[in-house]
Amino acid sequence: METIKNIEELYEKYKPPIYTYLYYQTGNREAAEELCQEVFLRAFKSLTSYRGDCSVKTWLYTIARNLHATWYKREVKYEMLTLDNIGEAEFISDKASPEETVEKREKREQVRNILNLLKEEYRSVLILCDIMEFSYGEIASLMGWNLSKVKITIYRARIQFKTLFESEGDNR
Question: Which one, 46, 49, 73, 91, has least CB within 10 Å?
Answer without folding.
Answer: 49
